Amino acid sequence: MERLKVAAVQMVSSTCVDENLARAQQLVAEAAAAGAQLVVLPEYFCLMGRSDTDKLVIAEAHGDGLLQRALAALAREHRVWLVAGTLPLVSPEAGKVYNSTLVYTPGGREACRYDKVHLFGFSGLGERYAEADTILPGTAPASFEMPGARVALGVCYDLRFAELFRRMAPFDVLVLPAAFTAVTGEAHWEVLLRARAIENQCYVVASAQEGLHENGRRTHGHSMIIDPWGRIEACLPEGEGVVVAELDPARLASVRSRLPALAHRVF
């Protein structure tokens, strides 16, 4: 891995796509101005609808659409690698979309697509979530190569399934856009992120939603960047904003050479 400056963008997305896109554009510009070469938007950056079915209305066919054109232009304008959170893409099943992460190069070209594999389901403490009602799961892991780094992708609930990332190891950076609920986030967000960094001996860049959304859902925030030893390099607990950190290849090499756990893998 080469030295790399990264940024995690934290948002409180609303029910208005135009407003969310404008805010994402402002925050990506802020990250780029801070020197970030890789910028990560959160899950559902473009829409936190009042109803789970609202995402069906704005779903785009893969390869074209207002959101995809805007994201490509944003990466191109600021000359950054942009991991574009997630947006709904048309699926072959009626009434369902893919919850997809698209990655754009500094030239605005799509470099990778990942469809979220694990779909969140939770009930208790007065809350119920069932992503499978409106989302079709992806079927394969995804990673991409950028100058000096191999980057693995995951989305939110994927964080709980270590085997997804082990299938891609070794990689230098794990990127995770998310919209963790306040309840599950308070209990599990940090410990799971640090565990994925430690066991894969990689940097983790986790970009989150935070706050009370118009649909009544409260998200946890705490966007953070974690080093391969599990140390938190930067964190934004609340509100919208950007966290930036520089990833150090010497740090990565030191952790892997002193404790060569990846080389000791049996399965």
Please outline the major beta sheet.
7 strands, mixed
What's the total number of strands?
Answer: 17
Percent helix, as a range, is: 25-40%
Q: What is the number of domains?
A: 1
CA(first)-CA(last) distance: 25 Å
CATH architecture term: 4-Layer Sandwich
Helix and strand string, N-terminal first?
Answer: EHEHHEEEEEEEEHEHEEEEEEH
The proportion of residues in beta strands is 25-35%
Averaging pLDDT over every residue, what do you get?
96
Instruction: Output the radius of gyration.
Output: 17 Å
What ranges have pLDDT less than 50 throughout 5 or more consecutive residues?
Answer: none
* Top CATH class: Alpha Beta
Shape: globular
CATH topology: Nitrilase/N-carbamoyl-D-aminoacid amidohydrolase
How many H/I helices? 6
Structural class: alpha+beta
CATH superfamily annotation: Carbon-nitrogen hydrolase
Keywords: Hydrolase
Organism: Crenobacter caeni
Protein name: Carbon-nitrogen hydrolase family protein
Pfam families: CN_hydrolase (PF00795)
Account of the 3D structure:
It is a single chain. Strands 1, 2, 3, 4, 5, 6 and 17 form a 7-stranded mixed sheet that branches. Strands 9-10-11-12-15-16 form a 6-stranded mixed sheet, with helices on one face. It starts with a strand and ends in a 9-residue tail after the last helix. The protein has helices at 17-33, 54-57, 66-78, 162-166, 182-200, 249-258, and strands at 4-10, 38-40, 81-83, 87-90, 97-104, 110-115, 121-124, 127-130, 143-146, 149-153, 173-178, 203-208, 210-212, 218-220, 223-226, 232-236, 241-247. It has 267 residues and is an alpha+beta fold. The longest helix has 19 residues, at 182-200. It has a single domain, classed as Nitrilase/N-carbamoyl-D-aminoacid amidohydrolase (4-Layer Sandwich), CATH 3.60.110.10. It is globular, with a radius of gyration of 17 Å. Helix 1 runs parallel beside helix 3 (66-78). The chain is built from 6 helices and 17 strands. Helix content is 25%, strand content 31%.
